[in-house]
Amino acid sequence: MTPVKLLSFLMLLTPGFAHAQDWSDDWSGRVTLYGWLTAAEIDSRVPLRGGGSLDSSVSAGIGDILQSLDFAAFANAEVRRGRFLLLGDLMYAKLSTDGTGAAGASVKTGLKTFIGTGAVGWQFWSNDRARFDVFGGARIVSTEIDVARRGLLTAQSGSDSQTFVDPLIGLRAGYQLTDRIELRGSADVGGFGVGSDFSWEAFVGGSYGFTERIRGELGFRYLSIDYKNNGVAVDMELYGPTIGLSVVF
Predict the structure, then answer these.
(1) Bridge partners, residue 33, by sequence
(2) Backbone angles phi, psi at 62, to 5 degrees
(3) pTM for the whole thing?
């Protein structure tokens, strides 16, 4: 089942519109700083000045990515007022990897990626424990790729940077398991040929309330982006566990 069909199926299974038992007019929300122990599958193609292109393929598990990661920063936030919802997520990562290409040539790949997501949502169903939100927005993706290949007889290098904006739509759900434990999940699809050819993301996880203001976060996140433009191609899959700390207000 494709991500689009899966999202549509989940929305059809969701109960119909209902009135919540307690709607507050006050603003509330959370800000989260988190780490993403991500594995990566990245295939890229950059054009060469004299014609042709240079391909790179990176496949790294969590242990590999910790060795390849030069710098990373992650944060997200959500703000609610009644049924209205604002969402934001920021991610920046810089990777450097060494590999082996055809005929034993060494291939060095450098990748800088910034992904910023902003969305507006609406809580369309809830009861004492569960809630469902639908949201729509945009994902800004900026990548800078440097690929260098060196063999016995040849040395080639290429670089390119691309910035594009993906529209997206998605669905979120939350369930208050106990007074301290909350379960959450979300999925979105985007791109549609506007920015990337197609992108989708899914998250499942939960949080534990240490105090009324501080919560610990655990989860698993998957992000896929397929982008092609002017000879540049990036097919990126990032996935792995997340751990973070939230401040609730």
Answers:
(1) 75, 245
(2) -60, -40
(3) 0.82
pLDDT band, very low/low/confident/very high, at 6 (cuts 50, 70, 90): very low
Least confidently predicted of 13-27, 62-76, 226-240: 13-27
Nearest of 247, 229, 226, 237 to residue 38 by alpha carbon: 237
3 three-class SS: helix
Place of tokens 């973070």: 244
Mean pLDDT of 190-206: 97
Q: Which amino acid makes up residue 222?
A: Y
How is 150-164 classified by DSSP, letter by letter?
E-SS-EEEEEEEEEE
N residues, the chain: 249
Rg (CA), the chain: 20
Q: Is residue 91 a contact partner of residue 113, using CB atoms and an 8 Å limit?
A: yes
